[in-house]
Structure prediction request, 879 residues.
Amino acid sequence: MNIADQGYKEIFKNSPMAILILSANGPDYSILDVNSAYLEATHTTREFLVGKAVFSVFPTNPTDQNSRNIEKTILSFEEAISTKKSHTMHEYRYDIPIGGTTEFTERYWTTINTPVLGEDGTIAYIIHSPRDVTENVLLQQREKSGIEALKTQRKQLYSTFMQAPVGIGIFKGPDYIVDLINPVLCKLYGKRIEEMIGKPIFEVLSLAKGQGFEELLEQVRTTGEHYEGWAIEVPLIRDGVIEKVYVDFVYEPFYEDDNSISGVIAVASEVSAQIHAKHQLEEAEERARLAADAVELGIYDLNILSGELITSLRFANIFGFDSPAKHNDYTAVIHPEDLHLRVKAHEQAIENGVMNYEARVIWKDGSIHWVRVEGKVLYDKKDNPTRILGTVLDITSQKADKELQRKLITLVDNSVDLMSIFNLEGKFTYINAAGLALLGLATQEEELALPAEGMQNAEDLQFFQQEVLPSVMHNGSWAGKMNVHNFKTGEIIPVFNNCIRIDDFLTGEVLAVGAVMRDLRAELKAKQALADSEQLLRNITTASPTALWMSDTQGKLNYVNQTWIDWSGKAFEDNLEYGWISAVIPEDIKQVIEQFHLAMQNKVQYEVEFRINHADGTQHWCSVIGEQQFNQNGEFTGYIGSCTDITEHKELQNQKDNFLGIASHELKTPVTSLKGYAQVMERILKKKDLNMEADMMRKMDAQLNRLTSLISDLLDVTKINAGKLSFNNQLFDLKPLLEEIVDDLQLTTDRQVIVKNFQPAGKIYADKDRIEQVIINFISNAIKYSPEATEILVHLKQEQHEVIVGIQDFGIGIAPEDHLKVFEQFYRVSGKMQHTFPGLGLGLYISAEFIRKIGGRIWVESKKNEGSCFYFAMPVHTA
Ligand code: ADP
Prediction:
């Protein structure tokens, strides 16, 4: 070998550059030597390579014919040989077989083929030095395909943009220059793409200017916030026509790579068709609603599944609500008796698809209204009922009209008067039941077959035809008495006939004649009966032992009976008005008249006793009772009264009073002496220390005290009855008098404490002794009738112009019905307990007489078992 010496050989062997030394003789170009870097790069061994033709060990990869790598290498060798200069092959593919397999690995190389000249100047061999650039090449390849992909993506995006079914546009800069716009948006705007691209959008869409869109775009562009608008109205010119277009749109900011916003992306789709359809629907609904309103129909929509009920305002109003209410609220106001109708109607609606019922509803104010509910059931695809749509109508007035008509017919049917209508041919067209009965006919048919004139006999018919009918035809009506006859019995029946002409109220043409006839038989009979009973009454009153009288509202007599006429000896007329007064004896006249007028003013019962002179010269006591009278309208009509002779009764009473007077007077003297003896005896016995006997005497004295007071009561009563009471009035203060009486009476009871409850009060003018008697009576009663109580209150006070004394106890009390009666003579409240309380029932009678006679008032306030308070009041006496 004549190549370089051993030193070069070392460099060659250890060079990091892969080197293959080939003979310069083609076509084998056999391998002369190889270094380790080459073996490493090609995954081969020295033994496998050295001495072989180079292309036999590095054949072409059958799957990569395209690279024509052997061909290229040979060309490079030839080039290097012919030019005697290095030749470089750039980044070519030459796959390397994988040892032990038929596979190859893909490899790229940049190889320098350098010819080495021998000493003779010919080419001795070729240095073949490949550099593995596979990584580099593959990277480049990947980059290239990435760019390709980006390119196609961009293409695709663009075509998507252009073919998108919604309108998309990009408007840039503060003038919103149309940067990109797709055909859909162009179409929406009614423009061609060329007309828009590169121009400010509002220059192109001049009508949209000043509608607020500039501000929206500005907002999105400057703030980056996105904006959505739904069904916005945009005025546009399309095909030369101004249109209102409805658009849903979104404005998004358009970001540059540096994240700055350079414009706005608008995505828009036209919804005009939907909006118009919606408007049409709304209009149709509005028309339906107006129509419903016009006929006052309320509308409802009931969801059967959810029970939700949607109603119109009118619906709510018909049910008595101010605004639409809930389903339950509507049900709640249906009249309880009609609820079942509603339930049934709902059931039937589900069955046959139609809803229909009438029911009453009760409004908040309690008024009742009739409603008619109608509706139709809607079904889903599976034929299940889903909704009921329908209407409601207030039919109250219709119902009322019908009701009125029904009532009128019932009225006519049930009227006791004959009611009939006959036509101009003189035939009945209608007659009511009372009419049939009056004429003795069984059925309407029977009657309707007859001529109307059949209901009269010849004479009465003549009257009817000559008097009645002409008047009806001419004047429109006739009213008066006439006769008809009963077909069956032939009886002539007097009637009062109200006959009227019935005209067509539109044309005025005469249609028929109506007659209302009242059977006068009963009335005539009643009149007769009245006359008879009047006669009877007259006979009775004449025969009565009591005088009877009647007055008008002024109190003037307009009737006296025979008895009074007999008593007074004056004629009927002479007793009328005030004529009767001359019979009254002069002393009693004032009282009689005063009392009568007082009663009449208050329209209450009149009761008085007075004396009259009979015609025979005798004087008689009579007791008069007059009852106030009112007519059906409640108006006062005067008095009806009686006058009974009570002379005998008076005489007996006088005798009794005289007897009582004499008896009590006669009793008084011995009782007074007895009292004296008893007191003397008590003292003597006490002195002798006969205490038991003395006590008996004290008790006797106490009984004598009671007897004395009974006798003095009786004497007072006889005085009162005889009208012989006299009073000795003086001006005095009640307080000291009350104090004195209370202190005295406190000694008579151990059980009750008598409490003074005195307030300032004025003086009174009265008989002091009588007042004292009244107070003692009140307090004694209070002690007597409250045996269980521990307290009695004595009140003194002034109220307005009255001084009032009240004695209050907490005893047995008095039932309300006895509050007035306790002041009557000898009246004692009956009942088991009374037996335990001694008394005559005179004390309060006497007290009342006293107080009334000296111009005061007396009364009691009491509740049974709770106690009583007896009062009297006297006017305050101002000098
Ligand atoms: P009497 O002598 O019976 O007490 P009065 O004329 O004083 O007669 O009373 C009449 C009746 O009134 C009595 O019988 C009694 O029934 C009833 N009465 C009077 N004062 C009282 C009182 N303070 N409480 C309950 N009842 C009374």
In short: Residues 777, 781-782, 785, 809, 811-814, 822, 827-829, 839-845, 868 surround adenosine-5'-diphosphate (CB under 6 Å). The mean pLDDT is 87. DSSP finds 27 helices and 34 strands in the chain. The longest strand covers residues 241-255.
